[in-house]
Amino acid sequence: MALRIDILTLFPEMFEGPGPLSSSMIGRARAAGQVDIRIRNIRDWTHDRHRVADDTPYGGGAGMVMKPEPLVEAIETVRREGGAGNSRSKVVYLTPAGELFNQAVARRFAQLDHLILICGHYEGIDERVRDLAIDEEVSIGDYVLTGGELPAMVVTDAVVRLLPGVLGNPDSARQESFMDHILDYPVYTRPEEFRGVRVPAVLLSGHHAQIQRWRRKMALKRTAERRPDLLERAALTPEDRLLLDEIRKEKAAG
Ligand code: 4GN
Questions:
Q1: Alpha carbons 122 and 60: distance in angstroms, whole number
Q2: pLDDT for the residue 180
Q3: Three-state SS for 190?
Q4: Residue 71 included in any domain
Q5: Are residues 181 and 153 in the same domain?
Q6: Domain total of the chain
Q7: Could you give the C-alpha distances from 134 to 117, 152, 160, in angstroms and in order?
Q8: 94 CA closest ligand 1 atom index
Q9: Which pLDDT belongs to residue 124?
């Protein structure tokens, strides 16, 4: 069974039309039935004539708080639709206060049967929704947005591209590229010379082993320069260490 993702939002129009979840790889995955993405309007679970989903905060202060009843009812309904107890499901709230989202979290979510993403707005959700209905809180980075919709799209994209068959990969090949904690090597396409800048000669050589070695070296160099923190956690082979020595010597020589 394909992964199902429900996105609960007060602003479903943010997901309408051609957008990140309808284009490119994610759009194709949806069309091919590899993922079932549903945008759900939290307002559909209100019961009053004006479909009110927010209210003023107890204790006073600026802004509005998302009311608990519609949100919890929405989560309960959507969870039941997904098969509830018979499926691996997770309710995730997108918030700057959550655990930082990364490739490991994406891989974990890609193993689920049902992912339910909750988009907050205004001052956020009533704390009791967190206590009663949220399994996990995730942040896509240390900044504040007007709502959880963009983070939900980011998480969805990162998860869907890992699903078996979605990249056209048999399974796990591409998933490994960030897993080994090394940044990508630089890539080039035609023309051979662009505005005076040539493609590195080794890439035109047809010498496969040399090309592989150069790519690994450039990836290590880039990681050492930009993300030394990643390099510390990387599983480096003896050949990697030789390449890093070479890089250090070249740097010292200028
Ligand atoms: C998540 C939500 C940033 C993130 C958000 C993030 C909506 N901004 N870094 N904004 O993943 C207060 C209540 C802000 C909802 C929340």
A1: 14
A2: 76
A3: coil
A4: yes
A5: no
A6: 2
A7: 10, 15, 21
A8: 1
A9: 97
Amino acid in the structure at residue 117: L
Beta bridge partners of 8: 40, 118
Together in a domain, 63 and 180: no
209: amino acid identity, one letter: A
160's enclosing H/E stretch is: helix 149-160
Task: Confirm or reject: Cβ of 64 under 6 Å from ligand 1.
Answer: no
For residue 166, being part of any structural domain is answered with no
Q: Is the CB of residue 96 below 6 angstroms from any atom belonging to ligand 1?
A: yes
Q: What is the pLDDT of residue 237?
A: 97
Quick: pLDDT tens for 58-105: 999 999 999 999 999 999 999 999 998 888 999 999 999 999 999 999
Query: Given this model, what pLDDT does residue 172 score?
Result: 52
Query: Considering only CA atoms, which residue is closest to atom 11 of ligand 1?
Result: 139
Q: What is the pLDDT of residues 173-204, one digit of tens each?
A: 444 555 579 999 999 999 999 999 999 999 99
Residue 139, domain extent: 3-160
Ligand 1 atom closest to 145 (CA): 8
Domain end, chosen from 102, 134, 160, is at 160
